[in-house]
Structure formats: C-alpha cells, structure tokens
Amino acid sequence: MEFPAVLFPSYFGAGPPREEGGPALAAGWGEHGQVLEAGPGRRQAERTFVPRHGRTGESWEPTEAAAVPFLTPSASCWVPSLTPQDILYRSVLHRKLWTGKSRATLDFTRQLGHFFVDHPEDAFGSLGRLLHKNFHLGNSKLRRKARDNTIRMTALMEEIDRLEARRGCPRQYLTSRLRWFSHLSRDWLFEVPLGLLADCVHEELLLQWASLLFDDSPTGGALAWLPPEDVGARMGCLVYPGGQAMNQLYFQDVVLEELPHSRGSPAQFELNGRIWQVSAARVDGEGFVGVRSDYHCGVWRVSGRTGAAPAPLQVIRTSMPASCITVSPHLPGELAVCTQSGSVYLWSVELGLQRLRHDPQTMFFRDHSPWRWSDFTAHPRVLSCADRTGLQCLDARVPERCHFDLFKVGEEAGCRQGERVVLPMYLGRAHPSQHLITTQFSVYVLDERLPLVPVLKWAHMMKAPPLFAHLTPGGPGRSHKLLLGASCTQELLLLQYQGGSRSACQLAGPPQKLHSISSCLEHLPTQLPHRHRLLQQRLSAPAAGLAAVLQEDGQRESLLVFQLSEAGDVFCQRLTHEAVQPPKPTSRDEATTAPGSSPLFEAPASSPLRSGTEGEEEEEEEEEEEQTFYLSNVEVIINEEEEWDASTPVAPQEAEVPQESCASPEPARAVPSPAAALRYRRWLKALSKGCGEPPRHTWPPTLSQKRLFTRKELEVLAVPSALHEQARQRLRQAMQEGGRIQRWDTPDPQPPPLPQPLEPSGSPDPLSARLTAAWSGDWEKWWDERTSFNIAQRQRALRERRRRQKRARGRRSLSASFTSSLTYQSELSELSDVAPTTLSPGQPPVLPREGSPPGSFPVASPAPDEALLSSQSLRCRGIPKERRKTLRDYLSVWAEAPPEPFELPSSQASQLCIPSSQSQLSSASQPRRKRPRMGF
Amino acid sequence: SSHEHKLNFRKSKEECLSYIQDAMLQKQWKRAADFLIFYTESLEKDFSKEYMGPAEMIWRIGTEILCHHSHSSMKEFNSFIEQMKTLGVKRYLKVCLEHAFHLLCNGLIDEAYQNLSLAESWRFGEQTAIQDKEMKLIQAYRGLLDYYSWSKQKTVLLEHGQDGFEDFSVEQEMHSCFRKAAVNLKEIIKIPGVWDLFVKCYVDLLEFYGDHNEARQVLSEYAYNSKFPANPNAHVYLYQFMKRHGESKKSLISALKILHDIVPSHELMIDFNTMLQKSKKRKKRRLGLEVIFAGLDYAGWKENVKAWSCLARQVKQIVISEKHLDWIKQEWNSRKDWWPAFHFSHYLAKRNWQGNESLSYEKALVAGILLGKDCKYFKYVSHQGCKAQVKRFRILKKFVNKHNPAYLRISG
C-alpha cells in the first residue's frame, strides 16, 4: 500500500496536553486546518491547493422524514433504566439553595431509608426480635408494672409519620423524642453496622451515578450487519440482542428493499447475561460474530450461504467483566478480548486464549478507568490495545518486547486537557493501516505507519461521547463514510473522509446529522397524553448499537443505517446519493419544520447528563407543553382496535403537493412516506399489544384484599345462596352499564322506605336521641323538648350516669384480670398498622362509627345482668380501651392466622369482638339483639 | 436579578447556538445564517470565561456558512473575515491563517500572499506559545508562496535562457524570492513536526543553488532527529536525494534498512528487496528474503502481485540451488501457524484464480514450496490452471512435485 508522498504540515510536541478544553459547540466548524498543493499533473503556472478540512464531499440525503421502525417491538415490556431523578437529591430547600449552580447531590439518605423500609428484616431483624417485648405500640398507657421494661413507641411512630408528611418543608426539624431515640439506638439497632452499610450504599450510589454520567459498557454497540457472500445479493443478516433483559441473541435475515424487511423468523439464542456488544466480521466467506456480556463472551459462525443457521462455536467466562470483543478481519475464528482487570487476550477458536498483556495500570498516565479495548491491525499478528490514555500495538508473538505507541492523549496528537479515548476502531476496510480513535471532543484517524501523529483530526461537537462507529468504505476516488453514534443522546453523525494511500487524508464535506430514533415521535399518529409520554420514554431510550449497509443498485446508491435502542427497538433510515432523486420528496417551508427538528424537541427527557434540579424543572415545563399541544389536537385520537388497512393511502395530501422540491436547496421532508407511515402504525399497534399494561407507576393505587375479608368470608359456598346470586347479578349488570351500585340491600326498584326510627329504649344518650330525631324529621320538636327539660330530670339523669360510671370503674379493675395477656396485645398492635375496614359481602356496609375520641368515654360496660353471662363474653368485655382502635384489624388478622380450634361462625365471632362503643355504653339496657346493627 | 438576567441571557444564547448547530448539521445554511444574525447579540454581553467565546464561535460558524451558502461570494467572505479579525487579538493570527488558506484553496494566491505578509507584520505585546506557533506557520506559508514565485521565475528564466536572452531584473527578483523563501522555510523545519511540503521546497532551493551538503543535512536531520515523529516520508526524501546524487549502494541500502525497520509495509520495500536480491553478499540476500516475507505479512500486501513474484522468485532460486533452505525455514517458522489461513485458504485460491491469474500463479508456487504439493491452495490453482491448459501452471506443477523434498526440509 502506498504512503502519501506529502503530508499536511503539523507541529509535533511531546508531553501532556497543554490546550485547555471543555466541550465546545462550534469547535469543528470553519477551519481548513492546513493546505497542501494539489497533486501533480497540473501545470506549474496555476498551482491549486486543497484543504485538510472543508473540501466538498458527496451528498447523501435522507429519503424519509424520520427513522422508520425495522422490527416489530418485542412482546415483552421494556423496563426503563435508572434516571438521575431516582438517585439525586431534590427538595424545595435544595433547589433554592443551589439555583444556578449545576451541582448534583446524591440523595443518599433516601436510598438508605428505602433500604430500611424495603428490607426491614435485613436491616433490623435480630434486634427487632429481641426488643419485641419491650416496645409497646398500642395507644393505652402502660401499666406501672410493665413500664419497667417496656417503652411506648406510638408517639415516636406518629412523629415519624408527621415527619414524612412534612417532607420538603423548609421548617422541618426533629423533635427531641426522635433525636433522643436515634441518638440512643444508632449504635446498636442495626443488623449491619450503620457506618459500614452507609459506606456500601454510598459507594454503590456513586457507581450508579458515574454510570449515569457515562456508561462505557455498551461501547462498540450491540448491532452488527453481516453482508452476504455474494456482493450483489440484496440480502444480509442483522445480529442484535432483544428480550426484556437484552439477553436473547437474534440473527435475522433481511431483504433490502426500499424499506428493508425481515425474512423468516430469526435464529434465536438465549444467553446468560445482558448483551453489551456484538462484533462481526466476514473472513474467507464466513461470518464470525463475537458477543460480549459482562462475564461471558461467545463466538458464532454464520455460513455465507443465505438461510444457513448460525452455529455457536465457543464461550469463555471471565472473572472480571469483559470490556471489549472484536473479531479479526484477517483470520477465521480469531478474536480479541479485554477485561476490566487490564488483561488483553487473543482468542482463537482452535488454539484457545492467549494472554498478551496484563496490567491494571493505564499505559501513559494514571487514569482510574478499568476500561480496556483491543482491535486488530494491518498485521494479523499485531493487536492494538487501548485504555483511556492511548493506544499501543502489540505483537502477539512477542507481546512483552515488541510494541509501539500508536496514539497518546497528549501534545503529540494535539489533545486537550481531560480528553480521553472513548472508542478505537480499526478502519481496515477503508485502508489497511488506518485506525479511528474517538474521544469525547474529537475524532482522530491514525495511520500505523506514522504513529502518534493523527493524519486527520476533527472536533465532532457531539453532546455525548461517540460510543459507536461504523465505517462504509468508498471505492477509489470516493469518500469513506464514517458513522458516529452516541448512546444517551442518540446522536448520529455522518462524516466523510478520503485519502490515505496516494493522497493525504482529508475530511470531505461538512458532517451531517442523521435521524435519531426519538425524532420519529412527531411523525407517529397522535396519542393520548399518557401514551404519548410512554412512547416518548420508549423512543428516547439510549441507543445501544449502530450498523449500516451500502446498497448499490445500478446508478442508484443508498446507505441504510440501522440503530438499536436499549429498549430493543431497531430503527432504520435510508440515505441516497445525490445522483439519485429521492422518491417523492415533499416540499414544505423550511421555517415550518424548524421547531420540530430543533434539538430542543428531541433531547430525550431523561438525558442523564443533566443535574437533577434542572431536569425536574424542564420536565415540568415539558408537561405543560404537552398539554397545550394536545388540546390543539384533540380530534385525533388513535383507536387501538381499529384495523389499519395496508392499502389505505395514509397521507392523501402528499400526492397533491407539486414536485417543486428540487428548487429548494434543502428539501424539507416533513411527512413520512405512505410506506413509512404504515410501518409506524404497525409498530405502534404491536407495541400497544405487547405492552398493553402501563408501567407500574401509572397504575391506580391498589389495596390489598387480604385484610378486607376473613378467611371464612372469602370461602366459596358450595351452593351459592340466593343473596349471593343476586349480588353477583347486580355486580355484573353494573359493570356492563358502567354504573355503580348504590344500595345492596334493596334489590327491588322501588325507592327504599325511610328506615325505621330507632326505638328509643331505656334512656338514649342526648346525641343518639338528637340524631334519631333529626333522622325522622322532627328535630325541632326534640329541641323544644330539650330546652324545656326540667332540672329535676337533668339531676336524675346525672345521678344515674354517675352511678353507672362508678360501677364501671369498679369493674375495670376486675376486668383487667380477665384480659388477655400483654403479649397477645402487642402482637395485635404490631399487625395493626393498617386499619382496613371489614366488610361482609352479604350485609349492608354500615361501618362502626366512633363519634368522639375514645378517651372521653369510660370503659365498655354492657348491661350488668349480662356481665356475668359467660366467661367468653367477659373476656370480650374485658378488652381494654386501647385495643378498640385496632379491633378491626384484629378481624383481618384472624383471617390470616391459622384457623383457631374454636371455629366460630363469622357472625358470632364478630359479635365477640365488637368494640364497645358509645351507643352500647349509653344504652346499657339495650337488648342484645340490636347489636348486629352496629355493623356486623 | 442581574444574576437571573445573566442566566436567562446565557440560556437563550445557548438555545440559539443549538438551533444554529442543528441547522448546520442538516446543511440548512440559510436557516443557520438567520439564526447567526441573532447570535451576534451575544457579543455585547460576553460574560463567559469559557474555552471558546462567542467571538470565536461566530467566526467559525460564519466561515462555515459562507463556505457552503449558495449565495455567498468571495467579497462577502473577505469582508466578514476582516470584521472577525478585529474581534479579538487572541485569535487574530489564526483567523489570518485560515483566511489565507481559504484564498489559496480558491486559487487567489496573490491575495493570500498579501494577507500573510500583513499578518506577519502584526505585533501585539507578548505572544503566547500558540500565537508563536501560528506566526511561524504564517511565515512558513509565505515562504512557500515565495518559493512558488521563485520557481515560476525560474521556469521563465530557463525558457528565456534557451532563447539566449537574459533579464537581470527577473533574475534578481528570483534571487530575492529565494532569499525570502529560504529564511522562512529554514525556520519552520527546525521545529519538530511534519513539514513534508516545506522540506521538499527548501531542499529544491538548496539543490538549485548547488548546496548539496546543506540539503543532505536538512534531510537527514528531518529523518533521524528523534524529536521529530517517525515520518516515513522523511526517509523516502533522503533516499530519493541520495539516489539522485548517485550515492553508493551501501548507503542507499542502509537508508532503506531504517525505513524497513519503521515501516515494513512501505512500497519501497519491493525496490529494497530487488536491490538486496541482486547483491552478491549472502547476508544481504538473506535480508532481502526477510524484507519480502515481512511485507507480505501485512493485509495491504495480500494481493500485491509484484511482492508475490519477488518472493516466488527468491524462494524458487533457493530451492533450485538447494542452498540456504534454512533461511526459508526460519522465516516460515514464525508464520506457519497463520499464513496458511491468511494467504493459502481454499476460499482465497478460488477468489485469486477468478480475480487475478498471475497472482494465483505466484502464490501457488510459494504455497507449493512452503506447504507441499498437498496444500489446498496449490492443489486448487494448479488443477484449475492445468484444466485451463495454461502452460506455466503445468510447469509449476512439475516444479513443485520435483522439489517436494524441499518442503519436507522446510517444514521439518
């Protein structure tokens, strides 16, 4: 291979980079770099010069308005990945404090709190059990005897609840009780020592945050294209991961047509881990596919014949996560593998693994990243080996002795401070000795024959570092097409360069932005806002891979670009070479498309590079925007059930648009073609079918039924009673009508008669009497009576009441001896943190009511004659006041507890457990049969 | 609120910039130009202390737009750049240099020269390291243009000289051009870097005036100074110079040997091999074999017929003479585990036969000797060759069959 006779001039310095740097948006524009005299063969009188950057390149125009889905979305739903909001600290106070300062604070306490709440057994298990008897959670005051070794936690719990309610309140302060408790228990309460646990959580959070800022695992990309052996065939095989965990490997045959489509069902392999990278090369007519997951790497062979099944060849397991796998373009069955421990292996399917290097340290200066990369070079026995600081080439036959530096982050390549290698790639298909190196700021093309000095350098201006790259070599006299892709921003950039053998390397034409997956959102049929939001989330999932195919069809040349997202979606777009007129381009004023194609609209909402507060604010703005957007578009609502006819012209207005687009210098492609629109619809339909249930956070709050009904009540009767039947029927009817059931107990359509006024038995308490009076409509009469109540009556009533109280007080000391043991109570109160209401299906849902706070009433006191009826009722009546509040829970607890030996009928059981309440105590002489009216 | 105002201003500035960026990346130059008009406002309140200020951005974006905009003219471009030059002292030289490049690429060499001269005379306080470098480049490019006008006058003079007519003014002008060019070019090539263009011109000047020693020194400094990058061209220039001046074979070989050490796949290695093969010394012939084997290790040489025929010839010679079979054996030892798959697979035999018959012939010869007559590549190609009734393939088959013992000695 020839070496250019004259290279562009450049300085060559040594040492660390001197130029200060940061991301600069316009850094790549407007420079010619250097100039050279154009090649020989011209007359000396008129010398011409060529620039290093900025010469004209080929024109590749996208044919569609946006990327088009290539595959139907997988049936399994995608779990969105972590967002900054999940782990960053956010509160009103915080936002106020840090306005204008872009500093992210990890919400460490929240995560720790989540751990305590989600895994209480792991956090406090053993001490919790030990202290079980010493913590009292009920409402009652502790008896003196118990006070010695038991403390009351109720107030503390309430305090914590209040604290939770005041979250975010700037005047939030800890009460002394809480402070006292945390001070007292901090050292011993935790199963794992708090300091240690906190360290671990913090470390993990930092790791998570670092990977949110920049995750290098998907480097290289998990999408690969295997061309067919026969160059002319319009077929090929796309290799990509899928499934909910991205652990399924698919080999899909693809037919290249105007819009590529899959042929047959893909060959599928289930792997033991998430697939990060798929690398492929065709050697000697056979395709070799290397697959990398965290701890496993595998290699498949795909025969050149179409339709042949891919064969798995070998798998290796690594103890440290692998960071790179590349397939040799020279020798069949050879791969390069790197692990995060700093090892580089040459992996031959026949000969096994050969370790070429093991060095946990980086090569040229110290950098903390364990990321390593390796690729092949022009010499099949020489491998390149990279870390964040640069690139070396090693001879596999004598790796210790024979190596040279190909690229160094430093003054040699004119790097900027803080610049790091992101992705190296061997460009052998363009020129056998060329390598691509991308950093977060620039792209470099290096020639092995002239190490350390980039033959091409260009600031790519991408917002996220390019983790994926793809080369489409151009023939002689043509430019090589280089695609760069970023992960979290989904950016896709097309660069062209040429030269390397006869003439020096030159950048050809300005770079060009291609459609990202998320850009198709505006071309999808309009969705309901919540669906739109889900769709937006799905479409703006970080990119996970990139592949491209050059398709030659006589005069017509087109480049098909595939992009894979982390959600497993594969989208494609076609670029055609200028010589060909794009099919039916539609003209629209440039200005009208401007906002739609602006970066503001397509920046994924969950871009992890922004600080939390900023992101949140933007999110709010976005929501507003969305609403207004939808209000203006309410008439278009997609109906999932509707069948989309394939032959229906989707954009009828398109045909009427006159073909004047040729006049416009930049044909704005505002409307997707009918075929693309059909694809969008099909994709959407499959998506809504596959992921019909919305993600968890949009579900309405659910209630556990476990504690609503007792075991007995939930038992299905062998022969359903008439009441059951009736209830069911009504339920069904109500559901069909979409109405609601207002009353259970009146199956007849007649308006229910007014309930019988409660018969005043004995002397009802004033409140009951007043309510009864109000119910029956003669409240005024009651008031008159009340005002004219004579003093004698009052006195008598008072006396009567006092006597009753006295009696009750006397009995309390007695009943206390009959109460169930204290442990039993504490068990109850532990389980009674939720207080669901108990309902029996067959009875009217009248809830027991407690009119006034329980403290203002004396102890339950049934009629004195009843008091001595049986031991059971005694036990029942002996229930102390504090338990009344938790009795409803007790019922539900019963449902969960193993069936007790004395199986009581549910009605009787509930009777036994009724909390004695207001009406009972005031109507001591009330007949017992009335009691079920209290709710059971 | 002034803080807030600054924030808002910054935000809208950034937004505007991203609109511009977006338009440019989609080649919507007109749209980008419209946005750039708004962006110029950012110059008024430039609070940023960032790596790249708005002034530089406007210069870069504006230049790019004017380069691609369908309605832009050179006049507009020049006036825009003149404005940009006044925007800041820090990038004055850079803007001048890029302006000159633009003029050069558009064939406006005189204007470029004026620009460079003007920039050269610019002085502003103490220069930073970067400005120093830029100044040196400006001088070097001016020197280059001086060199071009020198060579133009040289041609004129030579043509006129043939007519027997002498023009002293032209000659004087030519000498002054020489002086100006030489001073500037000499300066830049002292600094470590890749200066192929400047070195070539400077050496041409020196050669014309007969200063061969200086020229040789410049070239060997350029090639062998360890502060300079390992530029293969530096060695090539030196080799070509030596060849031009009829230096000894020995020094030519030593120059190429160094080139071989740094770039074994350089195209000059074929010349080197031929040169070595012709040598009478055993050691050199041995080196020749090494050179050609090393060259064929590279993917870029895989289908290089010349190289394969060089190897085939040398291998054939060795086999016929039956001397130095151990040379082949030694070279083959480090390659026998991967050359068969890399060069001599069945797939390649088919492809080479279809694509390039003489390539397959040379390769088949080498394969037959190195891998024996049962090797897939040899078998396929010789079979096809015999089938197609090509005479040389029949001879090849006979030759390989006859010398099969050599294979056994090489492989054993």
Automatic annotation (TrEMBL), chain B:
Source superkingdom: Eukaryota
Cited Pfam families: TAF1_subA (PF14929)
Record InterPro entries: SL1/TIF-IB_Component (IPR052669), TAF1A (IPR039495), TPR-like_helical_dom_sf (IPR011990)
Record-level GO cellular component terms: RNA polymerase I transcription regulator complex
SUPFAM superfamilies, alphabetized: TPR-like
Biological process per Gene Ontology, one example term: transcription by RNA polymerase I
Protein's name in the database: TATA box-binding protein-associated factor RNA polymerase I subunit A
UniProt source species: Phalacrocorax carbo
Lineage: Eukaryota, Metazoa, Chordata, Craniata, Vertebrata
